[in-house]
Amino acid sequence: MGRIGRIFSLIKNNGLSAPAAMLRRRLNAAPKVQSRRAAKLVRRSMDKSILDMQKSRKFNKNPLISILMPVYNTDIDMLRCVIESVIAQTYGRWELCICDGSDGEHQKVGDCCAAYAADDERIKYRKLFENKGIAANTNECALMASGEYMALLDHDDMLHPSALYKVTEEIEKSGADFIYTDEMTFAGSIDNVLLTNFKPDYSPDMLRGNNYICHFTVFDAGLFKSAGGFRSEYDGSQDHDIFLRMTKEAKRISHIPEILYFWRAHEGSVVEDVAAKGYAVDAGIRAVRDDLAEWGENAEVGPTDVYPTVYRVRYNLTDEPRVSVIITDEACDSDECADSLKITEYGNYEIIKIHGGSAEINRRVENMPEGNFVLLLDGGAEAVAAGWMRELLSHAAREDAGAVGTGLFNRDGTVESYFMITGIGKDGTAVHAGRGLRSGDNGYLGRMGFCQNVNALNSACLMVSRAKFLETGGLDEKLSSAYNRIDLCLRLKKIGYNNIYTPFAALRLAPCATGRKKRKSRTETEYFLDKWRDGLCDPYYNVNFRRDGTYLL
Questions:
Q1: Are 203 and 32 in contact (CB under 8 A)?
Q2: Could you say which of 196, 235, 381, 534 would form a disulfide bridge with 38 (CB–CB 3.0 to 4.6 Å)?
């Protein structure tokens, strides 16, 4: 039996299976079919010919990667499994730095680690005099490290044999100093996939709401040191804390959209029951709150209904700038939309009704005497909650923000659109994220239930500062509302702003707009596609998902 076979054998005879159905409900994971396909995808990626090719490749950059792995009272079979997964790496220039904080009743942990260290000089082992906690113990691992890059590995998980190869390949290609990959969670057997985490490219707003980066993460050793290492006051969410700090300092952040990390669900692990580790939730909230404060953001952080470790950031406004609400839609009575705004608790806004297209909107914005922010609102949308405008404005007022938008629901409670996923669909332009889901269904891994960065927003509701709107040149006057908001979002992103989706300002579709689709001429579609030929690929929509927007493999 080869090394890969031994790894599978170790896994299949080890660990407690968390109830898969319960875990899926908790994490709002993808259906079984996706998990089966993910398992096949991983199996194919472990084909011997692929792994042999990787072993023979020579890199120009050949960094030493120091893997930091603190251990504490670890199950011996799990420990052997994780160490074997490191030894099986097709990229061989690594060192495994193990610090052992186990108590006196777990001497076998130290014996196991020491035996591996004696057999392979790349494995460094050190017994700690006391267990200082996960953050401090990981810092002790870092003191043992001599690599140009560092990587994080939990003592009960497992690496894909290509993990370090793929990371080195990315370093060679892009010079990235912070890299993360996709991952999957399993129980007992590697074939028992509970969920897969296919991640977006770097999304700072999503990271504030949830540590979506998680595993597998590799970063420049200098970046780690400049960030100050791990902080014990955030034990339980120490990774989230340091990721927030390192990603803001990193010169290039790369995401590898491949499953290269296997996260084990077992009794006592966070993924099995986060309620058993409530301190981790509290630490995560403090990590986000304190990080915002360090960067001068006036904000509050609290939990959401999605999951305990998914947070909502409320940005506080320092003043109440004027919002110019431009209501557009010839198919609906703009008076009905305007009447619905009476529920709005934010008082400093004006309503401008127009029946023209992009050119008239541009003229209105250019000639505004007062408005600091522009809110493009479809006449077929209605406000349903008092705080919706303040929520949009609290994001739009941020220096890094481009356009800000929210979800649109049908009157029967189904989702009309959360935001737009670009570069997919029948014509390759864009599709509505979440269309057809029921109210309360937050989609893949609950992502529609918290703020995140997106490539483009739907046309129902879009807020942007007047200055940034004019900086882009305004709406493209060759495009109708079917495309002009998407085009504006893409141009805002191109010049360096982050477009933001928030679920906390959702609107409802008016009766006049129900069942109506915006008309898109073939000429307009061709113009849009030609204009964005090289810029429609959505960095926040994982390449492993279906190209129709359904989030399946």
A1: no
A2: 196
Q: Phi and psi (nearest 5°) for 135?
A: -65, -50
How large is the angle between the packed helices 76-87 and 3-12, nearest 10 degrees? 160
| CA–CA gap between residue 80 and residue 416 (Å, rounded) | 49
Residue with tokens 């990193």: 250
Give the span between the Cα atoms of 358 and 491, in whole angstroms. Answer: 15
Nearest one of 452, 433, 456 to 537, comparing CA atoms: 456
CA 325 to chain centre: 31
Residue for token pair 């085009």? 487
Asked whether 272 and 23 are in contact (CB, 8 A), the reply is yes
CA dihedral 394, 403, 247, 199 (to 10 degrees): 110
Place of tokens 């709002």: 28
Please tell me the distance from the alpha carbon of residue 200 to that of residue 145, in angstroms, as a whole number. Answer: 30
Handedness of CA 67, 543, 183, 114 (dihedral sign): negative
* C-alpha–C-alpha distance, residues 465 and 394, integer Å: 11
d(CA 169, CA 23): 34
Q: In Å, what is the CA distance from 508 to each residue of 432, 463, 513?
A: 15, 17, 10
Give the whole-angstrom CA distance, residue 453 versus residue 455. Answer: 7
Tokens standing for 15?
Answer: 């660990």
DSSP string computed for 64-90: -EEEEEEESS--HHHHHHHHHHHHT-S
DSSP string, 385-433: STTHHHHHHHHHTSTTEEEEE--EE-TTSBEEES-EEET-STTSSEEET
- Render the burial of 291-311: b for 16+ CB within 10 Å, e for the rest: bbeeeeeebebeebebbbbbb
3-state class of 464 per DSSP?
strand
For the stretch 206-243, pLDDT in tens is: 999 999 999 999 999 999 999 999 999 999 999 999 99
Cis amide prior to 198 (ω within 30 degrees): no
In whole angstroms, give the CA distance from residue 297 to residue 305. Answer: 24
pTM of the model: 0.91
Cα angle for residues 340, 344, 349 (degrees, 5° grid): 100
Residues 506, 389: contact at Cβ < 8 Å?
no
Smallest CA-to-CA distance from 349 within 396, 393, 394, 298 is with 393
Report CA-CA distances (Å) from 434 to 425, 478, 540: 13, 28, 14
Per DSSP, the three-state class of 147 is coil
| Average confidence (pLDDT) per 10 residues, the chain, 553 residues | 45 36 40 68 89 96 97 95 97 98 93 97 96 96 98 95 98 98 87 87 97 96 97 95 97 97 74 58 94 92 90 95 89 75 95 91 92 92 95 97 96 93 94 89 90 96 97 96 95 97 94 67 94 93 85 57
**Sign (positive or negative) of CA dihedral 390, 395, 401, 406:** negative
Kindly state the greatest CA–CA separation across the chain.
Answer: 78
The answer to whether 79 touches 109, Cβ cutoff 8 Å, is yes
